[in-house]
Amino acid sequence: MSDQTPLPESESPAKLSGQEPLFIVFNGGSGNDDSSSTLKKIQELLDQAGRTHTVLAVDQPSKLPQVAERAVKMATEAGGVVVAAGGDGTLNAVAAAVLPSGLPFGILPRGTFNYFGRTYGISRETEEAVASLLDARIEPVQVGLLDGRPFLVNASLGLYPQLLEDREAYKQKLGRRRWVALISAIVTLMRAPPQLNLELSSRGQRQMLRTPTLVVGNNALQLEQLGLPDVAHLDDNRLVAMAAKPVGTLALYWLMVMGAMSRLGEAANVVSFGFDTLTVRLRGGRRRIKVAMDGEIFWTRAPLVFSVSPRRLQLLVPRDDSRLDRA
């Protein structure tokens, strides 16, 4: 299933003076370092640069949307920039508040994988990230929507949300390390995942799909690392859907290996395609389903509608190309 969508009209990025006040939503629960020392370092660097800033600290994830809305209100009144400091889930929550406002959006990534930040060359290292924030230009970037709710990296249903949920449980016990995510995935795949019976509709075309998981991607770096050739669709104002055909546990392990080798696109058991709008219905009488968006898990009702936001996020990216960091 595929479609051709014209590129959106060019957007003229807003200009920065470099003196806009920064309103930083800081999630102390993100990352695997000491949050208090990280916050202190950020404030010291901004003070040294003489940059006006206000920190809005969050100690509970449930408060992120409320605090993000407050940051947007303050930045709107002061002609400032909203900055999210945390993992992909934090960036998602703050971006959701910023997107309708059109305000400039900066990030100080603190997550384990940092796909969104790395895609745009923004380092996870505090000093580099702050330096890039202080010498930035604006780049309008594409945002995906699931039932109108924004996502930056991916949105998924089925096995992938279960993998994320189990990974978080293991990280609570063993710490936020990449090897913990690998162990968690191996254990999760040992259980035979249930199969979803889906009806996919896009531009008048319908397709029936039986799969353990459906993932919709909006992040070039993640798709490239998996080895999916469909990454080019992101340049055409589209998203990329990927799903595994019904397979056993051993085949799922092999798909995980192929993904780690950046060769998932070569796997015969993987289906992927680009689209601008995709409606997903659940067959078999199901109405509610667990979904994940940028690592955050919640329940929603079918049908699910995936699309590209008509507005772009006004992201601050490093002005100096030598600072770019996608490692």
CATH topology assignment of the largest domain: Tumour Suppressor Smad4
Task: List the helices and strands in order.
Answer: EHEHEHEHHEEEEHHEEEHEHEEEEEE
Estimate the strand proportion: 25-35%
The CATH architecture classification of the largest domain is Sandwich
Which regions are unreliable across 5 or more consecutive residues at pLDDT < 50? Answer: 2-10
Secondary structural class: alpha+beta
Helix content: 25-40%
The biggest beta sheet is recorded as: 6 strands, mixed
What is the typical, i.e. mean, pLDDT?
85
Number of domains: 2
The number of helices is: 9
Q: Whole-Å distance between the termini?
A: 33 Å
CATH class annotation of the largest domain? Mainly Beta
Widest sheet: strand ordering: 2-1-3-4-18-5
The whole-angstrom Rg is: 20 Å
How many strands appear in the DSSP assignment? 18
CA-based shape:
globular
Polypeptide structure, described:
- The chain contains 9 helices and 18 strands.
- It has 2 domains: 22-143 and 311-323, Rossmann fold (3-Layer(aba) Sandwich), CATH 3.40.50.10330; 149-308, Sandwich (Tumour Suppressor Smad4).
- With 327 residues, the chain is α+β, with helices and mostly antiparallel strands.
- Helix 3 links the parallel strand 3 (81-86) and strand 4.
- Helix 1 runs parallel beside helix 5, helix 2 packs across helix 3 and helix 6 (159-174) packs across helix 7.
- Mean pLDDT is 85; it is low at 2-10.
- The chain is 31% helix and 31% strand.
- It has a 6-stranded mixed beta sheet with strand order 2-1-3-4-18-5, sandwiched between helices.
- The protein is globular, with a radius of gyration of 20 Å.
- It has helices spanning 35-49, 64-78, 88-98, 115-119, 126-134, 159-174, 178-190, 220-226, 249-260; strands spanning 22-27, 53-58, 81-86, 104-109, 136-141, 144-146, 149-151, 154-158, 196-202, 205-211, 213-217, 239-244, 270-275, 277-282, 288-293, 296-301, 304-308, 313-318.
